[in-house]
């Protein structure tokens, strides 16, 4: 079926009754149509574009790169005052984040090119390394404490946070475990559905909670329930597990005073009178959004980062973005995360391989849950959990682990049957290959062309 308009522009199919016609933005028919017809044509073109097999791949790649670039800009802008207060170079945090981003790109490319079978072979070595690193963090003298949490190991030139890589380990291990049990038709029994997935996740959460990282624990809980939902756990079992998680989280919040204070700051828009609860950080996050307005105060012109807004380049970078780039900037960040989540869901639904489905769904749950927790904390809708905004906030370990998840998603997106066929057709008919065929000389063969008949002279 032809897919070209008059000017040679690819046009999406539009269904009219039982027939299928083409609309192109360059045709006279489209230009002379009314506004309703143009809106319908735009809607059909959008549906056609989103329905292509390579659309999830390009959405993941494009949204990730845009979030990384915008995040680097905001890290540089929001950390200027902090580096001056600490007498550091003006590009100190920016350079460290740039190095982490470049290393993350290398890891993402390696994982995107790695076959899914090889990824499954790395599951248990990765899980053992993560558990060992979490045990080392809990040992006094090895684990490094920052802001009251013991989550880091100091390697001299770099500080690594093993709890960030526990998310990647749960993605691959949980997907491999459930895929093997589904192949053996064992998921109909609740024992095989929960064991050892739930005990293994609880072990990771306990090791992380030894360092006091409640935010990462919440993300692991969201990933666990995402895996149980995708595998089709019965509603009663799902509800019982959810109830146990709620009770455990409530106990963890009540027993620690500063967590209870953070819970009391949810929804607060002004300093509470006659209260011992300190909502300083949450309130100044809201002040930053209010000062930004529709288009912001300008890049680098934010006021809250001058000491009023703590952690402006890490946990509250979204508030700094709202002040300097305004509503337009914050909606752009939300749109990029929405595109990334949509593409991840498309990858999970577009495959028949159980491992790919579960791993893509768990990785998407990880990125989206962490983003919602961070955004909700900055907006005052959730307690401040201390988790960075994926691909955006300052943090080397968070950037590396998130880019590993992106590499896994890119691998799955480019290996779906439709994407494979599209990539093969594109590489076969690519313009670069045709140009190289014209420029580069062809290999000479032993066969010579037949001589032409002699030309008669008149």
Describe the protein.
It contains 19 helices and five strands. It has helices spanning 28-31, 35-50, 55-78, 80-85, 92-113, 116-121, 123-138, 162-183, 190-194, 197-209, 214-231, 235-254, 257-264, 280-292, 317-349, 354-378, 396-414, 417-428, 431-439; strands spanning 13-16, 19-22, 143-146, 149-154, 159-160. Helix 8 packs parallel to helix 11 (214-231) and helix 11 (214-231) runs antiparallel to helix 16 (354-378). The longest helix has 33 residues, at 317-349. The chain is mainly α and 458 residues long. It is globular.
List the helices and strands and how they pair.
Elements: E1 13-16, E2 19-22, H1 28-31, H2 35-50, H3 55-78, H4 80-85, H5 92-113, H6 116-121, H7 123-138, E3 143-146, E4 149-154, E5 159-160, H8 162-183, H9 190-194, H10 197-209, H11 214-231, H12 235-254, H13 257-264, H14 280-292, H15 317-349, H16 354-378, H17 396-414, H18 417-428, H19 431-439
Antiparallel strand pairs: 1-2, 3-4, 4-5
Helix pairs in contact: 3-5, 3-15, 3-17, 5-17, 7-8, 8-10, 8-11, 8-16, 8-17, 10-11, 11-12, 11-16, 14-15, 15-16, 16-17
């Amino acid at each position: 079926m032809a897919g070209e308009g008059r000017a040679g522009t690819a046009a999406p199919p539009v269904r009219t009754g039982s027939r299928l016609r083409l609309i192109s933005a360059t045709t006279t028919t489209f230009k002379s149509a009314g506004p309703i017809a143009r809106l319908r044509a735009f809607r059909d073109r959008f549906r056609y574009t989103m329905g292509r097999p390579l659309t999830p791949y390009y959405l993941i790649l494009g949204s990730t790169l845009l979030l990384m670039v915008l995040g680097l800009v905001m890290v540089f802008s929001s950390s200027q005052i902090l580096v001056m207060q600490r007498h550091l170079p003006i590009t100190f945090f920016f350079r460290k984040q740039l190095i982490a981003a470049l290393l993350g790109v290398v890891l993402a490319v390696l994982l995107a090119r790695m076959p899914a079978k090889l990824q499954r072979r790395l599951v248990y070595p990765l899980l053992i390394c993560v558990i060992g690193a979490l045990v080392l963090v809990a040992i006094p003298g090895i684990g490094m404490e920052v802001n009251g949490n013991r989550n880091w190991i100091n390697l001299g030139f770099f500080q690594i946070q093993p709890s960030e890589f526990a998310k990647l380990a749960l993605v691959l291990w949980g997907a491999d475990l459930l895929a093997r049990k589904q192949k053996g038709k064992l998921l109909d029994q609740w024992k095989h559905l929960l064991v050892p997935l739930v005990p293994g996740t609880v072990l990771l959460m306990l090791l992380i909670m030894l360092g006091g990282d409640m935010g990462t624990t919440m993300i692991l809980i969201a990933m666990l329930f995402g895996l149980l939902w995708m595998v089709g756990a019965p509603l009663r079992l799902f509800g019982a597990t959810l109830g146990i998680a709620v009770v455990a989280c409530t106990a963890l919040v009540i027993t620690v005073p500063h967590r209870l204070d953070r819970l009391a700051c949810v929804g607060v828009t002004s300093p509470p009178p006659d209260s011992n609860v300190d909502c300083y950080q949450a309130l100044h996050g809201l002040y930053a959004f209010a000062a930004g307005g529709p288009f912001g105060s300008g890049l680098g012109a934010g006021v809250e980062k001058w000491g009023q807004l703590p952690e402006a380049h890490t946990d509250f970078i979204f508030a700094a973005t709202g002040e300097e780039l305004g509503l337009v900037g914050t909606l752009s960040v939300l749109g990029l995360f929405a595109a990334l989540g949509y593409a991840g869901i498309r990858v999970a639904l577009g495959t028949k391989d159980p491992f790919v489905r579960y791993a893509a769904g768990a990785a998407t749950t990880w990125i989206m849950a962490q983003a919602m927790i961070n955004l909700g904390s900055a907006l005052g809708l959730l307690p401040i959990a201390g988790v960075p905004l994926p691909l955006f906030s300052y943090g080397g370990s968070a950037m590396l682990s998130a880019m590993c998840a992106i590499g896994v998603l890119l691998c799955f997106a480019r290996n779906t049957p439709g994407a494979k066929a599209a990539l093969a057709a594109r590489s076969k008919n690519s313009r670069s290959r045709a140009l190289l065929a014209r420029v580069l000389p062809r290999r000479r063969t032993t066969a010579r062309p037949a001589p032409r008949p002699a030309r008669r002279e008149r």
